[in-house]
Structure formats: structure tokens, C-alpha cells
Amino acid sequence: MKGAYILLIKLEKDADIRIGTVGTLHFSAGNYCYVGSAKGPGGIEARVKRHLRDEKKLRWHIDYLLQYAKAEEAFIKEGGSEIEIASHLSERFESIPGFGASDSPLSSHLFICGKGEIRDFLNSYRFRPFP
User: Is the whole model's pTM more than 0.90, yes or no?
Assistant: First the structure.
């Protein structure tokens, strides 16, 4: 299945984290949501499973953050557009500029979000829990 996904992430304490070629960014403790997509072999399921694993090669910006934070939940949307979803998230939540958007016209794909607010968003856009 190809489409988009959202990871709900918890960072327990403030951290300065080197994010690939972006450099070091400061992250405050709290809840984040990251939107991504998977259109290649294995689709959304393979991509989300990879993100949820502890052991992996650091490839995407999210991989660097997940060394310090925990992806607590994942949600998927078959056929969903990562850019469209991130654009809607940017209207509701503060973002981390430069994160996860190297191949996107948007400035970010990582947002600071409250759990209740993001759940409303997930419901309104008909995401379903993974797995």
C-alpha cells in the first residue's frame, strides 16, 4: 500500500540533536508529529516498521530524532499526499523548520502537537492506526 503516514513522537527531555546535513537543532521535551510518505517497494507498512525499529542505518531526518525520542504510535492513509497533509498540519501546529522537507516545497514535516489536537486531525483526515 502506498500513501502517507504520521508518527506520534514523545521526547522526554530537551536535546540538541545533529540531524544529518541540516546540522544541530534544539528540540524541547514534548510531543511531536512527523508526516512522511512511502511510494516504493513495501509501501507504508515497510517504511513505518523501519521507523519503529531501534536498529537501522541513519538515512532520513526522522532517523536521527528517533535516536533520542520514541515513536509511540503510527497512523497511515492509503493514497495520502505527504505534502498536502504537512501543509494542513502547518496551519494548526508550530513546525521545526528544515526538518524532513528536503524534497518538499514546505519548510517542515515535523510539528509540535498536543495529543488531543493531533487526534482530532487524524480523525478528520481518516487516518487509521498502524498496524
Answer: yes
